[in-house]
Specification:
This protein is 42% helix and 24% strand. The chain is α/β, with parallel strands linked by helices. The protein has a single domain, classed as 3-Layer(aba) Sandwich (Rossmann fold). A seven-stranded mixed β-sheet has the order 3-2-4-5-1-6-7, with helices on both faces. The longest helix has 20 residues. The chain is globular and about 45 Å long.
């Protein structure tokens, strides 16, 4: 049975480090799906630092939008797939004016595909705990990511919430 683990938390809460630590314990081929784009020097530095942190035992796939089809294609060859992160993925889709609902459906379908990787870790920010965004687009983004997080959490076998680097398991299916 496939396990899907959603890891939520605020910015800099330790989500990515926790996901990488846990996924690194899985034997076999490891795939890292990076949704970030190096659009400026600061982001280039962040991406390079994350690559070094992962090390050579991870095969990295950089995909800002077509995550559902990518995980369907690479999943069967890997024991674990780590997607980091839905937060940027939703932003990438919205900024391109693409139909988020279609991509959301595609992701949920891909996560339930029994032919994929036996273990998938997904990282996402919990954006509903802060202030209400000032702009209409900010509120739309928060609402879209919140809905997606809820759908993925519903489909996931395990869900963690991280605060101050401390993981708290909030859902577990056996």
């Amino acid at each position: 049975m496939r396990r899907t683990v959603l890891i939520l938390g605020g910015a800099r809460s330790g989500k990515s480090s926790f996901a990488l630590r846990e996924a690194s314990l899985v034997p076999g081929q490891r795939a890292f799906v990076a949704t970030a784009e190096a659009l400026d020097d600061e982001m280039k530095t962040r991406i390079n630092n994350h690559r070094k942190e992962r090390g050579p035992e991870w095969k990295t796939f950089e995909e800002p939008v077509e995550v559902p089809s990518l995980i369907r294609n690479i999943g069967p060859a890997h024991g674990v797939v780590l997607i980091d992160c839905l937060t940027l993925w939703v932003s990438n889709i919205m900024m391109r004016g693409l139909p988020l609902d279609r991509y959301e459906e595609g992701l949920v379908d891909a996560l339930s595909d029994p032919g994929g990787a036996p273990l998938i870790y997904i990282v996402s920010n919990e954006v509903g705990l802060g202030l209400v965004p000032e702009s209409p687009m900010g509120r739309e983004y928060r609402d879209n990511l919140g809905r997606l997080n809820a759908r993925v959490a519903s489909a996931a076998t395990d869900v963690y919430f991280l605060a101050a680097g401390i993981p708290m398991k909030i859902k577990e299916m056996r």
